[in-house]
Design brief:
Number of helices: 1
Largest sheet: 5 strands, antiparallel
Mean pLDDT: 96
Distance between the termini: 14 Å
Number of strands: 10
Radius of gyration: 15 Å
CATH class: Mainly Beta
Bound molecules: thymidine-5'-diphosphate
Order of helices and strands: EEEEEEEEEEH
Helix content: under 10%
Strand content: 35-45%
Number of domains: 1
Strand order of the largest sheet: 1-7-4-9-2
Shape: globular
């Protein structure tokens, strides 16, 4: 349940035709088996998504078009922001991180690779409960 947010740089296999990025499960970039993928697009201006943490889920977030900002609050209360604005950058989120997605550009397409199937029981959607979880399980911020 320790928490970590890591920026990942993908190396494009570019040539005269353009760019291509290939990601493999169980690799340095995606260090888990990918069981699910979803994407967020056509986001209404001003929308803030997320506002939850996960108990077990690991995710890699990639904004393959446009831009958005990921705000991560760690168990020790530290808040970090990452602007994802290029397809060769990803964000690996592991453990009890309270996250928000905001400031989506009109053309933003945010792809999320996830280590588990969708499971509502894995969500902590209440902030006070999240802080209680962090205390109860003595979560460590690994940044
Ligand atoms: P929600 O948790 O509100 O998304 P976000 O965290 O980005 O704000 O999810 C919106 C809806 O989509 C909600 O009814 C649950 C559903 N959903 C799935 O069915 N499968 C999924 O993999 C995800 C992420 C959401």
């Amino acid at each position: 349940m320790d928490a970590r947010v890591t920026e990942i740089q993908f190396v494009p296999k570019g040539d005269a035709r353009g760019q291509l990025i290939a990601l493999e499960a169980l690799s340095e970039q995606v260090p888990f088996e990918v069981k699910r993928m979803y994407y967020i697009f056509d986001t209404t201006p001003g929308t803030v998504r997320g506002n939850h943490a996960h108990k077990n889920l690991k995710q890699v977030l990639i904004c393959v078009s446009g831009a958005c900002t990921i705000v991560s609050e760690m168990p020790d209360g530290k808040v970090v922001e990452h602007r994802l604005d290029w397809p060769n950058r990803g964000l690996l989120i592991e453990g009890l991180v309270w996250r928000q997605m905001k400031d989506f550009s009109k053309d933003a397409v945010l792809i999320v690779l996830a280590s588990e199937h969708y499971d509502e029981d894995d969500y902590i959607r209440d902030y006070v409960r999240y802080k209680g979880f962090c205390r109860e399980f003595n979560c460590v911020t690994k940044v």
